[in-house]
Amino acid sequence: MLQLGGMVPLTSIDFPGHLAAVLFCQGCPWHCRYCHNPHLLRTDVPSKLEWAEVMCFLQERVGFLDGVVFSGGEPLLQPRLLDAILEVKAMGFKIALHTAGIIPARLAKVLPYVDWVGLDIKAPFDAYKKVTGLVGSGFKAEESLDLLLNAHHVDYEIRTTVDPTLLGEEDIEQLAVSLAGRRVKRYVLQTCQKPESTVNTPRYLGENLTVLFPSFEARD
Q1: Between the CA of residue 150 and those of 40, 86, 112, 132, 153, what are the distances in Å?
Q2: Is the pLDDT of residue 101 over 60?
Q3: How do residues 54-66 score in pLDDT, each as one tens digit?
Q4: Beta partners for 7?
Q5: Whose CA is closest to 115, among 162, 69, 159?
Q6: What pLDDT sits at residue 42?
Q7: Residue 215 is assigned to a structural domain of this protein
Q8: Is the bond into 73 cis (omega within 30 degrees of 0)?
Q9: What is the per-residue pLDDT for 114?
Q10: 8 Å CB contact between 70 and 84
Q11: What is the number of domains present in the chain?
């Protein structure tokens, strides 16, 4: 069903307000330099979990877990993501999706069945290449953002990882103004988790951004 790189059996932070399991989908075509799951980038590796194992695990936790998070890697890269979501949802679980929006058409297909989305917006859309390494990646992210904002039944969080070697203060402010102009309700800046990154950049930048969004957080 899915090519999986691992699973977290219980989390209270990856799906806000819910106890959930996290499924890490294998593979991502973008190569962000600060990626915290680089082992999940490759697609030419066998799945570490069989789908039957996942279903057995979830069946045993019906009534205990509230939901299941499809994360990665990039879950939208999975051709049968919708089938997997429908199967999990039929068991009574709520569905969360962590994505960078790399395939807008596939996001459009799964959004009707998703309860919450954590969408990574990596940079101003015309500056995506310096983060992802791919020309045109910003257009896909922008299209996915608009799809999400038009899916009014879906709760969400838009988040940006701040790597000071890739994004400056002007980049962040430009992006934040753009998101606020689209009436984004919740925006999060999060610290780049790299050994050489020691400055608490998000909290410093966030001082000027709190007025732009109904909900704003600078996350370490």
Answers
A1: 30, 21, 11, 25, 9
A2: yes
A3: 999 999 999 999 9
A4: 23
A5: 69
A6: 72
A7: no
A8: yes
A9: 98
A10: yes
A11: 1
Residues forming beta bridges with residue 11, ordered by sequence position: 20
Question: CA 203, CA 180: separation in Å to the nearest integer?
Answer: 18
Question: Distance between CA atoms of 143 and 101, rounded to whole angstroms?
Answer: 8
Task: List phi, psi (to 5°) of 144.
Answer: -65, -40
Structure tokens at 139: 């257009």
Which residues, 6+ apart, have CB-to-CB distance to 10 below 8 Å? 19, 20, 21, 65
Tokens of 71: 């994360």
Token pair, residue 152, equals 């009014």
Is position 83 within any domain?
Answer: yes
Domain limits for position 51: 4-157
CATH number, domain containing residue 39: 3.20.20.70
CB burial of 201-219 (b: ≥16 within 10 Å; e: otherwise) equals bbeebbeebeeebeebbbe
pLDDT tens track for 26-59:
988 887 878 777 776 777 787 889 999 999 999 9
* Angle of CA points 152, 155, 159, to nearest 5°: 115
Mean pLDDT of the chain: 90
pLDDT for res 192:
78
